[in-house]
Automatic annotation (TrEMBL):
Pfam families: M20_dimer, Peptidase_M20. Belongs to the peptidase M20A family. InterPro entries: ArgE/DapE, ArgE/DapE_CS, Bact_exopeptidase_dim_dom, Peptidase_M20, Peptidase_M20_dimer, Peptidase_M20A. It catalyses: N-succinyl-(2S,6S)-2,6-diaminopimelate + H2O = (2S,6S)-2,6-diaminopimelate + succinate. Residues 191-321 form the Peptidase M20 dimerisation domain. This is Probable succinyl-diaminopimelate desuccinylase. It comes from the Bacteria. The lineage of its organism: Bacteria, Bacillati, Bacillota, Bacilli, Bacillales. Pathway: Amino-acid biosynthesis; L-lysine biosynthesis via DAP pathway; LL-2,6-diaminopimelate from (S)-tetrahydrodipicolinate (succinylase route): step 3/3. It comes from Paenibacillus tritici.
Length: 427
């Protein structure tokens, strides 16, 4: 009988250059979101899969945002009922000030063992791995027992409402498990995320001539500053960690303590509400007392706290600071969520990491949020694993290690073989 495991791994080793070139080509599409135009990169992916004999269904959420679904189906031979979804997003955060990059953010060059460019870590290298492996399994004719679907979405970085949830809510894809190629540690897939509570509030003031402030006029910016200071107390919200996630939180905290600098305090965020003042927009001119100021806040919510309670607490803190303003949620909204270590897809992926790397691997929590929460809302077990230089994500000079790109592709392939199973028959 064909040893599909060895055959697939050998093919990935032999096809490394093709995989890396695919990574580079994806980065060369400047699919920044906003504005979120996925038409060109989607056309490229559709053509790439078509050359491997794989058809693609296109589901436009808007005129410029295309959701893509491609499936390797077991058809009548599917006796397992298992359907694995490979998921990735084509959008990237804006490159920002190009002068602060040491290289062209859309070059896709490979230099000194790193893939360079916006999206290298988040998450075009991982996306390329999923696409490459799907095409490879098709070309090799691997007789999977279940369905393998590739879901590529155009919208994740600005809240993702036109991506994964849009597709799942319409029943355009089904699955019994999912793997998202979001960046992670090479030995530590993320099996859960904190919740999110993005909100904004607008402070009104009274304009006046700048030369008379603070005697004349009432500055909305000064008032907003008091609100910003008050909101820092969201960190102090009491957190009662549910018993069922206490162990994974401890494991995740120990993981961060071991991987960060000795003086890092990042492990504390797993059991606290965090608060980041993301944007401040106020005033009309330097010599005019500001009559309006809008603040947008990114708060991340741990297990044991409901994001709606964070909104309520924010309203109370602003009132205590003398600010009467409507607090409006937007963007990421939801509670902490996770997938148990006991789920077959988690076991299979972790086992695949161990097999490829020769080292111990285990799942951890992530302090950010992602599309994983939408899969869990639809009762689909999911975890994230992808190549990354974590410190460069959403930063200037984003990059990803080549060795991780190759390792992740192998893990994706082995996970599909293990989870879906392979028919015992000659090639």
């Amino acid at each position: 009988m064909t040893d599909w495991r060895s055959k697939v791994l050998e093919a990935i080793d032999a096809g490394q250059e093709e995989l890396l070139e695919l990574c580079s080509q994806l980065i060369r599409f400047p699919s920044e979101n906003p504005p979120g135009d996925s038409r060109e990169i989607s056309a490229f992916i559709i053509n790439y899969l078509n050359e491997a004999g794989i058809g693609t269904s296109i589901y436009p959420a808007t005129e410029t945002m295309f959701n893509l679904v491609s499936t390797l189906g077991a058809g009548a031979e599917d006796r397992t009922g298992k359907k694995l979804i490979y998921c990735g997003h084509t959008d990237v955060v804006p490159a920002g000030d190009r002068s602060r990059w040491d290289f062209d953010p859309f070059s896709g060059d490979i230099v000194d063992g790193y893939l360079l460019g916006r999206g290298a870590s988040d998450m075009k290298a991982g996306l390329a791995g999923l696409i490459y492996v799907t095409a490879l399994l098709a070309k090799l004719g691997v007789p999977l027992k279940g369905d393998l679907s590739l879901l590529i979405v155009p919208d994740e970085e600005t809240g993702g409402h036109l991506g994964v949830p849009w597709v799942l809510e319409r029943g355009l894809i089904t699955g019994t498990a999912a793997v998202i190629a979001e960046p992670s540690g090479p030995l530590n897939p993320t099996i859960g995320q904190k919740g999110s509570c993005w909100f904004e509030f607008t402070v009104e003031g009274t304009p006046g001539h700048g030369s008379l402030s603070p005697v004349v006029g009432d500055s909305a910016i000064v008032k907003a500053a008091k609100g910003i200071e008050a909101l820092q107390r969201l960190w102090d919200i009491k957190v009662d960690i549910p018993k069922e996630v206490q162990d994974i939180i401890r494991i995740s905290q120990d993981y961060v303590k071991g991987s960060e600098e000795e003086d890092s305090l990042a492990y504390q965020v797993f059991d606290h509400v965090t608060v980041n003042i993301g944007t401040i927009q106020g005033g009309t001119k330097v010599n005019v007392v500001a009559d309006r100021c809008t603040i947008q806040v990114d708060s991340r919510v741990p297990f044991g706290v409901d994001y709606r309670d964070v909104l309520d607490r924010a309203r109370s803190l602003l009132l205590e600071a003398g600010i009467e303003s409507e607090v409006k949620g937007f963007g990421f909204q939801g509670n902490a969520n996770w997938t148990s270590n006991e789920e077959p897809v988690v076991k299979d992926l972790v086992e695949s990491i161990c097999e490829v790397s020769g080292e111990e691997a285990y799942g951890v929590l992530q302090w950010a949020s992602s599309d994983a929460r939408h899969f869990r809302t639809h009762n689909i077990p999911v975890l994230q694993y992808g190549p990354a230089e974590l410190s460069t994500i959403h930063n200037f000079n984003e990059k990803a290690p080549v060795w991780q790109i190759i390792q992740c592709a192998k893990v994706y392939a082995l996970t599909a073989l293990k989870y879906l199973g392979v028919e015992d028959r000659e090639s």
